[in-house]
Amino acid sequence: MAQSALITGATSGIGKACALLFARNGYNVIITGRRKDRLSVLEKELKKCDVQVLSLCFDVCDRKAVFKNLESLPKAWQSVDVLVNNAGLALGKSPIYEGETKDWDAMIDTNIKGLLYVTRAISPFLLKRKKGHIINIGSIAGKEVYKGGAVYNATKFAVDALTKAMRIDYLEHNIRVTSICPGKTETEFSLVRFKGDAQRAKTVYEGYKPLTAEDIAEAVWFAASRPEHVTINDMLIMPTAEANTVYFHHS
Known about the structure:
The protein is an alpha/beta fold. The protein has a single domain, classed as Rossmann fold. 42% of the residues lie in helices and 16% in strands. It has eight helices and nine strands. The strands form two sheets. The chain has a seven-stranded parallel sheet, with helices on both faces. The protein is globular and about 50 Å long.
């Protein structure tokens, strides 16, 4: 049977790019997301690669929905070779003293708890086979803080710590754990962060060439396609024009 990948947050951006790249390389793909219409469109696109596709519509923040969907995977889909924990978001860019607490909750519930729920639900399948690869999508924001990013930074620092700890926990079970950490990547990320303000979102990427979702998907694929005795622990990927979270070269 072909290998399979489970990708969360697959309806746009990095998740969608990963799903397409894995399918093009012959992987059967489980795609998850909150938007059923987008899942349906992506499923049709992936099937053109002559692979099997399973679409699961749920929010990773919803613990009951995560376990209901993933614990009851059809037997043919339980041999997950690669889990890409991609679902995540940033909301707002206010200082702590002006922050919206509901935005904080959404970031913590998605970026940390959602990743944990999905990983926990899939783990029995990985442990049974003593084989698999967990790839967490982190961020430069989990390496360095920046103005207006405190809670998002905190969630991505948590992802970085969780990835390191997971690497230890899964070590004796022959399960690889990788963190892929992008710098500025032009997706719907900023549009979501600024709650649909397209003009403000556009300014984030002006004056330099940001990364694309496909750039990050290629890094994910590189990590996943190494021989089983090789693990890419951590990969930080930046646009050439970005030195860190503060310094950019704008042409």
